[in-house]
Design brief:
- This protein is an alpha/beta fold.
- The chain is built from 16 helices and 15 strands.
- Strands 3-2-1-4-5-7-6 form a seven-stranded mixed β-sheet, sandwiched between helices. A three-stranded antiparallel β-sheet has the order 12-8-13. Strands 9-10-11 form a three-stranded antiparallel β-sheet, covered by helices on one side.
- β2, α2 and β3 form a beta-alpha-beta unit.
- α4 packs across α5.
- It starts with a strand and ends in a 6-residue tail after the last helix.
- S-adenosylmethionine binds next to loops.
Length: 428
């Protein structure tokens, strides 16, 4: 796996630590960010290399087709046009014939809204010198812009709402994002046009509500150019739904693809679901009531709810084509999550619990914001919980961990470990 412009590459470090048999490489132009990543990764993942490098010339350092997965998260729309071209060309150079690249970017047409706010802020602070002064002036301008005015039309109300949302994000994020030196939101069709020039094609998008963009609708009939059709439909959807962000997956043009959804192909995947069980066949998920007619599928969902965030293998729980279709419909409705691999964490602590390797390194270096084996960031400030996780290195029993962390009453240590497991902090 290669990560391009990964900053300190925390996600990649977590992946490499979780999957020691993988081989990972990450680079960024920022020496400070890479040094930070190297400090975290040292001693944790021998299967990872982090280096300072420039997208413009990095292709010279890699053999053709040398990576199965390539990630460029939040880079493409933050760099000048020549770096965008070099980034796509680098992906085409390193991607293996069955490889998949993930390229995320601020998308159009939502990007237009962001551009309005960006231009307003840049204008407001154009005469202000010094970073802290510019941040303060930008926040002041945002607060003024965000205040509702009598006579605002709905469009202006919407813009003011987005200004207020920007104000809620950390100033550092806004400064690196909308107010960065380069901010160029992209239309999906332009990204795909650039990719196809260097021998890449659209697979689909990652992310819960765009994952099916690469499939033709079931009633599409015979389409002469399925690739062009899916991109045309997805681009139209972006316009109609004011798309803000995309995480586009690219593959080599020669990769064999089927554009029709076939739920039997999900049999080899794993599934998890965060559901509240209401009644025999009734569940609540994401605020919606889901009714399941098939009693077998309903019983599977009850099991998934009980083991969340644990996963079950699809082929063990969905035996008939109708059940596989049912699961796929639930996935389309974002009621369940399909995964390519079993969970790398346990949901119940074992006799000798093991906190993730990266997690223990982060605890040791005093990081407040930790990253779970489910790749979620979470802040852990309670010293007792931190001490307990640091002690959970696989050599100590639950009772021994309890004896080391006397600030947690011994009858609560098992419950605290169970909590840690439910957060995806304990290794499988
Ligand atoms: C918006 S940040 C995203 C960082 C990271 N991928 C993340 O999601 O947190 C863009 C990153 O691209 C890097 N970058 C910009 N131009 C680059 C270049 N020419 N070569 C390598 N990295 C570059 C920056 O240093 C920065 O870390």
């Amino acid at each position: 796996m290669l990560e391009i412009g990964g900053g300190s590459c925390l996600g990649l470090i977590n992946f490499a630590a979780t999957y020691p048999d993988s081989r990972c490489y990450g680079f960024d132009l920022s020496a400070t960010a890479i040094l930070n990543g190297q400090r975290l990764a040292s001693g944790v993942c021998p299967n990872l290399t982090l280096a300072v490098d420039d997208i413009m010339t990095a292709a010279n350092n890699f053999a053709p087709q040398s990576f199965d997965y390539v990630i460029a998260h939040g880079v493409y729309a933050w760099v000048p046009a020549q770096v965008q071209s070099a980034l796509i060309a680098l992906i085409a150079h390193v991607l293996s014939p069955r490889g998949v690249a993930f390229v995320s970017y601020n998308a159009m047409p939502g990007g237009h809204v962001r551009m309005i706010l960006r231009n307003t802020l840049l204008h407001a602070i154009s005469e202000v010198e010094g970073a802290p002064e510019r941040v303060a002036a930008a926040r002041k301008a945002l607060a003024a812009y965000g205040a509702e005015q009598a006579g605002d039309d709905p469009l202006m109300q919407g813009l003011r709402y987005h200004a207020r949302m920007m104000l809620e994000r950390p100033a550092s994020v806004v400064f690196h994002d909308e107010m960065g030196e380069c901010f160029a939101p992209q239309a999906l069709s332009d990204v795909i046009a650039a990719a196809s020039q260097v021998g890449l094609r659209y697979l689909t998008d990652a992310g819960p509500n765009r994952m099916f963009d690469g499939f033709l609708p079931p009633d599409a009939g015979d389409i002469a150019d399925p690739d062009a059709e899916v991109v045309k439909l997805a681009q139209m959807r972006d316009y109609l739904e004011l798309c803000w962000f995309r995480a586009t997956l690219l593959v080599p043009s020669s990769a064999p693809l089927s554009r029709s959804l076939d739920s039997s192909r999900s049999a080899g995947l794993w599934v998890s679901a965060q559901l509240e069980v209401l009644d025999d066949g009734e569940f609540r998920s994401r605020g919606e009531i889901v009714k399941i007619g098939d009693p077998e599928l309903a019983s599977v969902l009850r099991e998934l709810a009980a083991i969340w965030p644990g996963r079950l293998r699809v082929e063990q729980i969905a035996k008939t084509p109708a059940q596989l279709d049912g699961l796929m419909r639930l996935h389309l409705a974002q009621q369940i999550i399909l995964h390519a691999a079993p969970a790398p964490f346990v949901t119940e602590p074992g006799a000798f619990p093991v906190a993730g390797r990266l997690l223990r390194a982060m605890l040791q270096s005093g990081e407040g914001e930790l990253v779970s084996l489910a790749n979620r960031n979470l802040r852990v400030d309670q010293q007792e919980l931190r001490a307990m996780l640091a002690a959970a290195d696989g050599t100590r029993s639950v009772a021994e961990i309890g004896a080391m962390v006397t600030s947690i009453p011994s009858d609560q240590i098992a419950a605290a470990l169970r909590y840690a497991a439910k957060q995806g902090l304990l290794q499988a």
